[in-house]
Amino acid sequence: MARASSNRRKTVVTVLAWAIGLAIFFPILWTVLTSFKTEAEAVASPPSFVNFHWTLENYAEVQSRSDYFRHFLNSVIISLGSTVLGLLIAIPAAWSMAFVPAKRTKDVLMWMLSTKMLPPVGVLIPIYLIFRDIGLLDSLIGLIIVLMLINLPIIIWMLFTYFREIPGEILEAARMDGAGLKAEILYVLTPMAVPGIASTLLLNVILAWNEAFWTLNLTAAKAAPLTAFIASYSSPEGLFYAKLSAASTMAIAPILILGWFSQKQLVRGLTFGAVK
Amino acid sequence: MGEIVLDQITKTFGHVQVIPPLDLQIDDGEFVVFVGPSGCGKSTLLRLIAGLEDVTSGEIRIDGEPATSTPPAKRGLAMVFQSYALYPHMSVKKNIAFPLKMAGLPQSAIDEKVENAARVLNLTDYLDRRPGQLSGGQRQRVAIGRAIVREPSAFLFDEPLSNLDAALRVNMRLEISELHNSLKTTMIYVTHDQVEAMTMADKIVVLNAGRVEQVGSPLDLYNAPRNLFVAGFIGSPKMNFIEGDMAETHRATTIGIRPEHITVSTDTGAWAGVVSVAEHLGSDTLLHVQTENLGTLTARVDGEFSVRHGSRVFLTPQDDKMHRFDARGLAIR
């Protein structure tokens, strides 16, 4: 009796989980399907699910109209660059907060987090003007800096959580063994925190890759990443659904694949320290 | 060389002074044990010497040189931690080699020293393993190996054996003593276990609430404790304390007599009582005796002594082994 009801519950939960999963995934699936339709079929009503004339012409068209690889390369440079720069700043910061906390360390951490609650549009004008005056508009360096800054609180928080799990005695042992601060961080702390640093890196690459507000507002052509590439196919008249879908598919594919292969690492990173 | 002098050092955490002004002289080559109950400041004192904590005031001198503000890496001391604190991502070999690598030795010299240390500590077969693949005793030996390779001027041990089981602890105690005999390097050893203190030390420093209660050789402390605290802390089982009229007849506020200095008889003696618990250990027998007007006293008899709960016994203290203390708890000599 009990076993039958627990089995039934399991079935219900499984079906529900699949239903929710598919509902969340559906827009992505629909985008991918639409990218293989003609523009006419893309807006046809009722829409056809798979029974349409499959074509690759949208991809060819998108590639010939705007250079995918240049945008792709910009996205890679911006997301990796901002993440690596962020890690270089965040590792020492998280080290000091985790291992030599001061009276106000908690407040500093909260303050950093609070900057994430500010709507970015609130600082768009000042940042735009500053970037214009120092010549960082539409430059990869400028985007790397701005994306690094907006993700820095998250990088520091994640690393801080990881570092706190490392026993302080091991770092003290390194100090007793003659390691200076640099050697301590380089040879002892960082290798021990590699899983944490890896998931922080992955998450931030994904965040930076998907970031659309700053990348759209601070670029024109030269430094435009894939977000701008997608946006260039979105017009108010909505005439280019199929091409927009093709551009979106090409833009999200790399990060989707990266996320797929690293999901184990990511989940571990996001829940680390939450359960002990 | 390894002479360490603490000159009026203090340590304050927030508003709490954990070490009041403290002077201590540790001579080159000595095996010094800091012993005291939990929270007495012994580990803090060791960490001050190591440089892992900053002193609030006072001066630390190592080999005559002021070292108060020298970072731990530059003090030339090696430390063995209670948790071993091995580098989990490095092999045993790399763990032991780490201080040498930090010192910038050439690889050939590093290899030679690591091999020597591994041979001395029976770790040769485990050099390629990670700490996670070793037993507690082996990890402890790696931690000691990492300390000895760099030939420090002094070794600091922070309760190194408290994570080991009883049998292994006795073994490691002997190994550390042997190591001290062969290296003749200063060792400072922190423990709350007075047996470790008695068996290993040249000099014991008894600490209580950050204060040094007494400094002396193990037998000095055993035979002539300076006050009630030391008398009660050193020796196992603990010294019996008797107050009131009986103490006054000896012209003291408190008298102390160790369990091994009480003669037990079933027919006659000074103090009559009833056995509440008898612990038969084979080699000796510990009797907890409820006396008529002196409270519960513990007596220790060599070998087997056949009494049980409820047996009537007589206790006679050896008068020349009696310790007398005044109202302030200080020994009367």
Task: Report what the structure shows.
The complex is a heterodimer of chains A (276) and B (333). In chain A, 73% of the residues lie in helices and 0% in strands. Chain A has helices at 2-34, 39-42, 57-65, 68-99, 105-114, 124-133, 140-164, 168-176, 181-192, 194-210, 213-217, 226-231, 241-261, 263-271. The two termini of chain A are 35 Å apart. By secondary structure, chain B is an alpha+beta fold. In chain B, 26% of the residues lie in helices and 32% in strands. Chain B has nine helices and 18 strands. Chain B has helices spanning 42-50, 92-102, 107-120, 136-148, 166-183, 194-200, 218-223, 228-233, 245-248; strands spanning 4-13, 16-26, 31-35, 57-62, 65-66, 77-80, 154-158, 186-191, 203-208, 211-216, 240-243, 254-257, 262-265, 271-280, 284-291, 296-302, 312-317, 323-325. In chain B, strand 9 (203-208) and strand 10 form a beta hairpin. Chain B is globular. The mean pLDDT of chain B is 92.
Structural topology:
The complex is a heterodimer of chains A (276) and B (333).
Chain A: H1 2-34, H2 39-42, H3 57-65, H4 68-99, H5 105-114, H6 124-133, H7 140-164, H8 168-176, H9 181-192, H10 194-210, H11 213-217, H12 226-231, H13 241-261, H14 263-271
Chain B: E1 4-13, E2 16-26, E3 31-35, H1 42-50, E4 57-62, E5 65-66, E6 77-80, H2 92-102, H3 107-120, H4 136-148, E7 154-158, H5 166-183, E8 186-191, H6 194-200, E9 203-208, E10 211-216, H7 218-223, H8 228-233, E11 240-243, H9 245-248, E12 254-257, E13 262-265, E14 271-280, E15 284-291, E16 296-302, E17 312-317, E18 323-325
Parallel strand pairs in B: 3-8, 3-9, 6-7, 7-8
Antiparallel strand pairs in B: 1-2, 1-4, 4-5, 9-10, 11-12, 12-18, 13-17, 14-15, 14-17, 15-16
Helix pairs in contact in B: 2-3, 2-4
